Amino acid sequence: MRCLVAIVGPTAIGKSKLAFRLASGFGAEIVSADSRQFYRYMDIGTNKPTLEEQKSIPHHLIDVVNPDEDFNLADYLHMARKVIEAIQQRGKLPLLVGGSGLYVWSIIEGWEIPNVPPNQDLRRELELKAREQGSHALYQQLCEVDPIATAKIDPHNIRRIIRALEIYQLSGQSPSLVRRKEAPDFPVLIIGLTAERSELYHKIDQRVDKMISRGLIEEVKELLHKGYSLSLPSMSGIGYKQIGDFLSGKMALPKAVEKIKYETHRLARHQYAWFRPSDARINWFDTTHPFIILSEAKNLIQSFLP
Length: 306
Known about the structure:
306 residues, alpha/beta, Rossmann fold, Histone, subunit A, 54% helix, 10% strand, globular
């Protein structure tokens, strides 16, 4: 079973649900490509599969680091490639599932990432600049040295901007130039899920309301109780930052929930920059008819498998 199936698309579109059903039918194992599900104790806000789902279908690269530990793309690639190879050697089908385009394409396109270790002094210096001058100042700084890398980074994603500047300043090379590509030696099938913008926003809003009702506020309280600061990169993720602001008295709960929905809408729009509807590599399905999608996706995979 030397092949790989990837399921991609914007947040809240239904990737995990489809992957679970496909995995059940094909005896497959799921490999996460969701950059927020790597962290332990952060379950509701990242919409992780339930423990029952993880027991029913093997899931990989979920809960691999604590919220205060560094976990970068090079770490992910090292772990994901080992996991995918192990699944293939067991004769199983690996399903790569997630909306983090950086992680998905790094596997599919075979990126080689420079091993540039974190430099905490430099990071603190850049973080201070972001606080004093705004994220746009760092974004512009990166654009001046590497416009290609900048075009693929969300201007509000300070963590990724800082990492790109870190690679440039410590290696002396532009991040886009030091990333080599060597496609994997097995075929890859990519399934993409999409929906009309209004329908996608409705799905996102429903998910956010469900996260609140499931206990997102209590989850953030517990993280703070464990000693994880709101200044950590993991705690600056959508949902955790806004609920943290609510708990610290910076905004009322309705405003925090509204901000979560707004920022998630913006994230979804940015994800389409990674997964373009015009990309011929992706087999797109509109989620208006989920049962048709399941049937057609099964047929597509069946014809793809050796």
